[in-house]
Amino acid sequence: MNTETKGFARRRLLLMYWLWGVVVLLVAGNAVAESGVPYTVALRGVTDEDLQKTLEAVSITVARKEEPPATLFLLRRRAADDVEALREVLRSQGYYAAEIRLEMNEETTPVSVVFEIQTGRRYLLKSVEIESIEGSSLPDVKMPSSSALGLAVGEPSDASRIVNAQDLLVRDVRRQGYPFARVADRRVIVDHSQEGVFVTYTLDAGPPGRFGDTTFKGLESVEEEFVRRKLPWRTGERFNADLFAEARKRYTDTRLFSLILIKEGEALDEEGRLPITVELTERKHRSIRAGVSYKTDEGAGVAASWENRNLFHEGERFKTALTLSELVIALDNTFQKVDFFRPDQVLNANLRVARENTDAFTSNNVESSLIVQRDLRPGMKVGLGPGLRLSEVDPKAPDSDRETFALVSLPGQFDWDFSDNLLDPTRGGRLRLQAAPYYDLLGSDVSFFKSYGSYSHYLTLLEHPFLVFAGRAAVGSMSGVDTNSIPADIRFYAGGGGSIRGYAYQSVSPLLDGDPVGGRSLLEFSAEFRLKITQTIGLVAFLDGGSAFDSVYPDFDTSLRWGTGGGVRYFTPIGPLRVDVGVPLDRREGLDDAFQVYISLGQAF
Q1: What is the bridge-based pairing of β-strands 447-462 and 561-572?
Q2: Strand (E) positions, 313-427?
Q3: Residue 545 exposed, middle or buried by CB count within 10 Å (0-12, 13-18, 19+)
Q4: Which residues of 321-351 are buried (b: 16+ CB within 10 A; e: fewer)?
Q5: Cβ–Cβ < 8 Å for 454, 434
Q6: Is 8 strand, coil or helix?
Q7: What is the pTM of this model?
Q8: Residue 476 needs a FRET pair 20 to 30 A away by CA distance; which of 107, 190, 406, 488 works?
Q9: What is the structure's pLDDT at 158?
Q10: Under a CB-based contact definition with an 8 Å cutoff, are residues 397 and 512 in contact?
């Protein structure tokens, strides 16, 4: 064999060994990759529970514990990368002298990874200064205090608050008339000798400005004059950026627009005014709704409505709603004129035609009212106006005759809603007060005064799981005449799905031969615990109580009726679908069923 042949054989042998080595390494690597290097991880030395959770949340070693790395080298690298991430978190919380020691025991199985943390003392915020950009002076406005910026001198330093304070400073200066204000620089000095943090913001306020002309874009069927009246600013007034949020709220409240964009001009004009552009995208102004309900005491019900929210192109709303059930057939018509003589005032015109057939009475009635309602503050409204009710009432109590009434009234109302959600509140409350004198025009000399008040409160008890307590109390009274002189369809009744669950509709009222006759006063209580299991499913436990009374005021010597039960809620975009089963705790033999079932849309209160 010549030298060339021997060389070729040697190279082929080396190539075979090399290929074999690669195969072995790949097989071994796959085996290790499949199992990885299991490990345990712990963060020690931190006594603050919230800080401990934050550190664990940013640790990749903790987050990927169930995904062990293929080799010890990669595990060391993973843990080493965490050290700097943890140190950044500690600094952001004011622990600038914190020390972190990484300890790994590679001889154990699984490998032990421990981060020994010594937080040290938390540095305090020593000062907050605002200075002007070089070559200018601070604007002639009141600078916000450090506490107004969310920074309390003498309290522990917090990086997120220092950053947020920058936005608050700009917002405050823009509110005071400087549209182009910005923070040009933010300096944070950590003094280890004083264990303190010193913050300085360099403010570039820019020139002062006033509101210029406002241009509207995107309007189709809504009149421009209507949306212009909604503006919270006028041309020539001092610029205030906070008014943009107020404008967006006003346009949102009209329910006429799906998109609202407010854009500022890029520069002031020669008069120092800033042009504003409001871009509006109109939503559909007409809608149709329908719903069904079922209650064992009232039977099945169907409701449908049609609404136009821009009837005459200035946000006028007209709604007609039809209700059909075994107890009520009604057609409700409502017209609402917003900005009635002033921006915070609304005219509500209502016309209702109904036939009611209950265990207490049969009534054919037409009722109308004209109420002027004014906003006193956000969520708080007061209203007053005349009303007229024509009715033919046939009480079902023995020895009662069919009567006809033409009642003129002057209803007044006060509503205060400070809850956090219209359809499914979890915090806050709702107060409603109503009062009206009534006088019969048909010569019966029937004259009485009716008042009613209710308050509901909502309290979040737990976040995980989400648990809400909801409570409600209501009281009513009628004075001036005896019960028999008051039309049966206006008296107070208790019992049913919207009152005291577990008892039939109107049955917790004064009775005559087992039939409800109504009363001159009312008292109701309700309490619910609402547990949300998932985003769409919830459970409810409730207790209701109360009664209607023949006396002018609730008679506490008379026993109240109590009902309890539970229900299921299915949460939809238009509100929770409610299914409740109520059981009477004071069941009357031959009068009350063992339970009642209620199916409808929306919470009970």
Answers
A1: unpaired
A2: 317-325, 328-338, 345-357, 361-377, 380-384, 387-395, 403-409, 412-417
A3: buried
A4: bebebebeebebebbbbbbeeeeeebbbebe
A5: no
A6: helix
A7: 0.74
A8: 406
A9: 93
A10: yes
